[in-house]
Amino acid sequence: MKISYNWLKQFLQTDWDVVKTGELLTDLGLEVEGIETKESIKGSLEGIVVGEVLTCVQHPNADRLKITTVDLGTGVPVQIVCGAPNVAAGQKVPVATIGTTLYDDKGEGFKIKKGKIRGEESHGMICAEDELGLGSSHDGILILDKKLKVGIAAADVFKIEKDQVFEIGLTPNRSDAMSHFGVARDLKAGLMQQDINLELISPSVSDFHVDERTLRFDVEVANKEQAPRYCGITITDVEVKDSPEWIQNRLKSIGVTPKNNIVDITNYVLHELGQPLHAFDAQKVKGNKILVKTLKEGTKFTTLDTVERKLSSEDIMICDADSNPLCIAGVFGGIKSGVTENTTSIFLESAYFNPVSIRKTAKRHALNTDASFRFERGIDINITEYALKRAALLIEEYAGGKMGSDISDFYPEKIEDYQVFLSYENAYRLIGQEIPKETIKNILASLEIKINSETEGGLGLTIPSYRTDVQREADIIEEILRVYGYNNIEFSHKLNTSISFDSNKETKIENVVANQLSSLGFNETMANSLTKPSYSTLSENINEEANVVMLNPLSNDLKVMRQSLLFSGLESVSYNINRRNNSLKFYEFGKTYHKYNEKYQEDKHLTLFVTGNRTNDSWTLENKTSDFFYLKGIITSVLSRLGIDNLKTSPTKQDVFSEGVSLSLGKMKLVEFGVVKKSLLKEFSIKQEVLFADFNWDTILKLVGNKNSKVKDLPKFPAVKRDLALLLDSKIEFKEIYNLAFQSEKSLLKEVDLFDVYEGDKLPEGKKSYAVSFLIQDETKTLTDKQIDKIMQKLQQTFEKNLEAVLR
User: Fold this and answer.
1) Phi, psi angles (nearest 5°) of residue 671
2) CA-to-CA distance for 342 and 533, rounded, in angstroms?
3) How many of the other CB atoms lie within 10 Å of CB of 758?
4) Which of 316, 542, 660, 734 has an alpha carbon 20 to 30 Å from 777's alpha carbon atom?
5) Which residue has the higher pLDDT, 501 or 244?
6) Between the CA of residue 610 and those of 91, 604, 622, what are the distances in Å?
7) Using the 8-state DSSP alphabet, how is residue 536 labeled?
8) How far are the Cα atoms of 58, 398, 787 from residue 40, in angstroms, in the given order?
9) Where does residue 517 fall: left (phi above 0), alpha (psi -120 to 50 degrees), or beta otherwise?
10) What is the greatest pairwise CA distance in the chain?
11) 532-569 in b/e burial notation, b at 16+ Cβ within 10 A?
12) At CA 519, angle to CA 515 and CA 521, rounded to 5?
């Protein structure tokens, strides 16, 4: 939010240093993120002086140029070549002297230098209106009043305004500070703590009156919950034209582009007082009646940005007597009822709308306007009529308008101010320091918090209506503390703490797996649980009806809770690949959220993402691309670390994989993994292969939680490894060899591993070669060659008999 220091000075007459002011505002909770210098004209006409043309003759070498001598007040006239058709002797003109920088309409500058034009010297430039930034005319030079003194600065003639603009990072709770008056109110309280007592000057509306009631409008509000207060007035005989320069300068300083006097005044009052206003062309409102109501779902409405939108049945609309929509209340106006240069009478609206309804409407239509920004945070309901009078008086003064009716004020149930009791003891306890009672009273008075009653133990208080965020005793204490100053609170130089011990078994298991994955080169990610609704259409395994939808979403991209960790993970993969980080290994512990038959369900998952090379580029290592079997090895190692083995492999039913399998223990599915489909990767602009694994972590925790760990001594006797190269039918899987080996030798066989697979022209058709290693060990003695040979012969015979294997 931008706040002009010159604008603030309209409410507080202070000459306090701008940097100190910024620091004080930050201490008060209105964090100043930057201070920018603004000028009503770029460059502030520095180097431009008033000159008098003494002579003007035709250039000897150019038909369109003239040679002038100009008095700049230095005592020595200078020669300037000028191409303007209207230059003549005796004129007072603005002259850019040597070294002056002029700026074009894009803000790009060029410096005036001494030079020759068609052989004649030129020592400056006589300027046109647009060259100075004073207008858009370039028909000729700007001719000034002959009474002006030669040599004076043009900045003094045109009253250039310099301003300092604060960029304030406003927190959502501080709706009271969404205006210059609100910030000035806070600044006044802060300055009082610096022993600087200033009067807060509020704009006067005492001159408001209605002479003739020539244009009456009726107002009808269908639902007082949606619009607790609605004010309006008609103003006739308006002339739509440019705003006065001072209003334009105020708006430009905070980044608002001036449009015309009517629109600019409504914007001015919005940023001055924090009350959004809207002006309707009265001639375009049928039946001279305003209806505040909702319309049918899907009703079409074209807004001021010429976009046709489909309305929700929950959108508050401003309509005419025939229920034709004129404006999305509190958000955006309609194109058919807006003020144009032909407007002669207006209906001016000032209202308080339900903040939740406005926020939902703004998010639903992806509209973020200055009005919705304020309405959805909660404005001061008691300023509605006052702001309307303020704007009406400005329109009367600067647009020639006349009040055409009395103010219509729909306010059936007055909202009472909050009553809060402040306990001194609680204040001292929360603040951590005893603040003098008189100081507390002075701070509350500076914040316009009224003291109704006082006892030895505390104060009975009434909270002003504009402080919608102050409703509890703790809120009052926070207000006292921020004005008193956090930096003024003493704190101990000794810090006491205690060591926490986490005995949660589930957390321990997660840490074990996380440490293992991190040691394998994985990085942990933590994605947002809120995601796009459109992701549910990317997989048939995700039920769109099971989406958990946010009632008040931050945006359309964060509207539902995720049903899968895949899509948020692919967002991270895509983000990294787009920044040339192509080799990735991610893991995430997270939850998915589902709604089944009006009941909500959360499931915990562990997901892995692998893409690119297995290791970082190095001249000492050969690059190997991560593949399906690499991911399978990691998954197996994780489950093995948790003591889970003897798994069943089956094809996965998940349609997000082009190739994938599922690992189960009995009927419990533990993990599904594979290669993500290219069509799905295309949705995230990923062009390289991505491997994905999804662990059912809730099931794994149940398995591990019910399993007791066994500890045994390390073997004292050596193990022996022997290999067999077996020629097998191509349909035989390694799992069959593995199971047969342990069935044949149960006591001494410890491990069976596959370390090579060969299929090629040198083998018979339909055959393949498996190279299998066997680890044999006796934990009570050292094995002899005879014992080992006997075991290996037994294994070979088993494979020959059951698998028709041939030893190569």
Assistant:
1) -155, 145
2) 45
3) 14
4) 734
5) 244
6) 78, 20, 18
7) G
8) 36, 20, 99
9) alpha
10) 125
11) bbebbebbeebeeebbbeeeebeeeebbbbbbbbbbbb
12) 120
CB 58 within 8 A of CB 66: yes
pLDDT at 503: 63
Whether the CA torsion 354, 356, 362, 368 is positive or negative: it is positive
Strand, helix or coil at 708?
coil
Alpha carbon distance 309, 646 (integer Å): 59
Q: How many CA atoms lie within 13 A of 511 on its CB side?
A: 7
C-alpha 238/C-alpha 404 separation (Å) is 11
Strand partners, 693: 608, 673
- Give the whole-angstrom CA distance, residue 114 versus residue 131: 18
Token pair 């704009």: residue: 203
How many CA atoms, within 13 angstroms, populate the side-chain half-sphere of residue 175?
Answer: 23
Specify the pTM: 0.68
Work out the average pLDDT over 621-642: 88
- Of 339, 344, 348, nearest to 236 by C-alpha is 344
Average pLDDT over residues 374-403: 94
Per-residue pLDDT averaged across 410-438, rounded? 92
What would the two tokens of residue 746 be?
């149960």
Residue 125 has pLDDT above 90, yes or no: yes
60-74 pLDDT, tens digit each:
999 889 999 999 999
H or E segment to which residue 649 belongs: strand 648-651
Residues 6+ apart with CB under 8 A from 437: 424
Beta pairing class for 584-596 and 120-122? unpaired
Q: List all residues 6 or more positions away from 291 whose beta carbon is below 8 Å from its beta carbon.
A: 220, 222, 318, 319, 320, 321, 323
CB 235 within 8 A of CB 397: no
Say which amino acid occupies 342.
N
Amino acid at the residue 96:
A
Q: Among 474, 492, 488, which Cα is nearest to 429's?
A: 474
Tell me, what's the pLDDT at 707?
A: 62
Structural tokens at position 222: 């269908």
- Ranges 136-150, 323-337, 338-352, 695-709: which has the least confidence: 695-709
Provide the 3-class DSSP secondary structure of residue 645: coil
Q: Could you tell me which of 557, 575, 574 has the C-alpha nearest to residue 686?
A: 574
- What pLDDT is attached to residue 766? 86
Structure tokens at 148: 């002006």
Asked whether the beta carbons of 746 and 686 are under 8 A apart, the reply is: no
What amino acid is encoded at 629 in this protein?
F
